[in-house]
Design goal:
alpha/beta, 279 residues, Endonuclease, Chain A
Length: 279
């Protein structure tokens, strides 16, 4: 194997760091070669090789398969999942500025999302996300990468001890068509299922404009850093932990939530919207 170039130094590149860790996990698990691992999970050896050198961080599905056969669980598994999200974000300079959000979101104890126009990314289905990215003008290769990154973020919702998550969205989100009717039905079914585990509340459209019409908000709170605000704009998302805008965003979120339906009422509204897409 040729020596790793400086650009793939584990001291500077999270993909290279993850690759080193995956190689060591393979050794500790008793797999002598990349071929052995590839055969066990049904993939090509080159995919394992690229992951271990940092050339191409694993997809969320591949990482899950690797961590499963290496028997990595608990907090250590979450560390590798977070590292992979950052590594994949850094592969694309267009997503580089969002890497701090992915890392913070993955280790947050409290997450709050407000969405006035589309389903928040943390709750999107692959088909919904793909059609959304296509509508934004991305080519298919980019769409695939963006969808993988987005779905990979959702692993935090399936942890044995998931963060406290609240998702608010405006009722028009249920009726803004992304993709075809089947995609919308699948997305609403996923939201209804998720609402059994996550606080999801809908702000009814009949109340008119609300405090959050200016745009989506994401707030992530961790034990070791100030709360991080992610706010979306037409051209580029913005991140800050400056306490002034964070407090303003938190106040907006609370005001919007004051207009929201209860969880049970929200689930009923989502169920009714799903029926309309099925008809």
């Amino acid at each position: 194997m040729p020596p790793r170039t400086q650009s793939r130094s584990p001291q500077r590149d999270p993909a290279a760091l993850l690759g080193d860790e995956l190689r060591e996990l393979r050794r500790l698990a008793g797999y002598r070669s990349q071929d052995d691992v590839a055969g066990s999970i049904g993939t090509d050896r080159s995919v394992i090789g690229k992951a271990e050198t940092g050339e191409l961080p694993p997809t969320p599905e591949l990482l899950t398969a690797l961590l499963d056969i290496y028997e990595v669980t608990g907090q250590l598994r979450r560390v590798y999942e977070r590292l992979n999200m950052v590594a994949r974000a850094r592969q694309d300079p267009g997503k580089l500025h969002m890497a701090p959000w992915f890392e913070t979101e993955a280790r947050a104890h409290t997450l709050r999302y407000w969405a006035p126009t589309i389903v928040p990314g943390i709750a999107q289905t692959p088909a919904y996300a793909a059609d959304l990215f296509r509508a934004l003008g991305y080519d298919e290769e980019t769409v695939t990468g963006l969808v993988e990154l987005r779905i990979g973020r959702q692993a935090i919702l399936k942890h044995p001890e998931p963060p406290d998550v609240t998702i608010l969205f405006w009722e028009p989100v249920l009726h803004h068509q992304i993709g075809d009717a089947e995609t919308m039905c699948e997305q609403l079914a996923a939201l209804i299922e998720l609402s059994a585990r996550v606080m999801i509340q809908v702000v009814p459209g009949k109340i008119g404009a609300n405090a959050g019409v200016g745009g989506p908000i994401g707030l992530a709170a961790t034990d070791d850093a100030p709360e991080l605000l992610g706010s979306a704009a037409l051209v580029e998302d913005h991140l800050t932990n400056n306490p002034v805008p964070v407090r303003k965003a938190s106040a907006i979120f609370n005001r919007v939530r004051g207009d929201a339906l209860t969880v049970q009422e929200s689930r009923a509204m989502m169920t009714e919207a799903k029926k309309k897409w099925q008809s």
